[in-house]
Write a structure and sequence with these properties.
Elements: E1 4-11, H1 14-23, E2 31-38, E3 57-63, H2 74-89, E4 97-100, E5 104-107, E6 110-122, E7 125-135, H3 153-156, H4 162-179, H5 183-195, E8 203-208, E9 211-220, E10 226-230, E11 235-238, E12 244-245
Parallel strand pairs: 1-2
Antiparallel strand pairs: 2-3, 3-7, 4-5, 5-6, 6-7, 8-9, 8-12, 9-10, 10-11
Helix pairs in contact: 2-4, 2-5
This protein binds biotin (BTN).
Length: about 250
């Protein structure tokens, strides 16, 4: 994959900019849209994404994952979460870094990065995917009502240069993305995602439409649904936004 950098001083949203290039048919796999300042960053669902100007990574990578069926699109979430986790972990001075289902990156029970993937499906294939990443790097104070944000600087007490970090993340995504083209490696990716899943195998509190309950994450299926075993031993299956972690 050839990376093509598109840098902007300011943008409302890098995901929106990348999606526009897909609608216009002017995109290529490997396009990276990144900006120093994003004032309408999109988060998951209806949320927005806070990022102080010049302090963090806010970017979107365009992929053409024609080897992934729309029904398997959770694999992209796994690829990107693992890549991001690995790069952050390497800069954490030994602190563990985990993936909170489906694709938040957590250090010390706090959210350090978020991923927003927008897929464009054409007939039976994924025509394009916009992989939006917000990684908190040098921002010390957060003003929005985001529940528990944290930055790399909180763990290492010095500023990190943004461009080398961005290049590392893209490089690592490329590694996992190329691995996923091979069926055996695909299974490795799915297993490794489970290995680094936040709260996997430990009793914790969750809430769903029926209220709070104690449960233990046991698995994530290939559609990306979270399996939680409750105190009665029943397995509950959740899609995105159907369950909340009570941290
Ligand atoms: C989340 O809510 O956890 C997902 C956050 C994703 C934020 C990133 S920042 C760069 C890209 N452009 C956007 O508008 N959103 C994503």
């Amino acid at each position: 994959m050839e990376i093509c950098w598109h840098h902007f001083k300011k943008l409302p949203s890098t995901n929106r900019k990348a999606m526009e290039s897909i609608t216009a048919g002017t995109f290529h796999e490997g396009d990276v849209v990144w900006t120093d300042e994003q004032w309408q960053g999109k988060g998951a669902g209806e949320n927005s994404w806070e990022s102080e100007s010049g302090k963090n990574l806010t970017f979107s990578l365009v992929l053409e994952p024609d080897f992934i069926l729309p029904s398997e699109q959770f694999l992209l979430t796994q690829i990107v979460s693992l890549a991001l986790r690995q790069v952050i972990k390497a800069r954490m001075n030994g602190q563990e870094c985990l993936i909170k289902w489906p694709n938040d990156i957590y250090v010390a029970e706090k959210k350090i990065a978020g991923i927003l993937i927008q897929n464009v499906i054409k007939g039976p294939v994924l025509q394009a995917s916009v992989i939006g990443i917000g990684l908190n790097v040098n921002q010390k104070i957060f003003v929005s009502d985001a529940p528990n944000p944290v930055s790399i600087i909180h763990f290492i007490n010095r500023e990190t240069d943004l461009l080398p970090l961005l290049k590392e993340v893209i490089q690592q995504i490329t590694v996992f993305y190329n691995m996923a083209k091979d069926n055996r490696q695909k299974i490795f990716i799915q297993k490794t995602y489970l290995k680094y899943l936040f709260h996997k195998g430990i009793w914790a509190s969750y809430s769903d439409i029926n209220g709070m309950f104690e449960g233990k994450i046991t698995d994530v299926d290939n559609y990306g649904r979270l399996q939680i075993k409750d105190l009665k031993g029943d397995i509950r299956l959740y899609g995105f936004k159907e369950v909340t972690f009570e941290i």
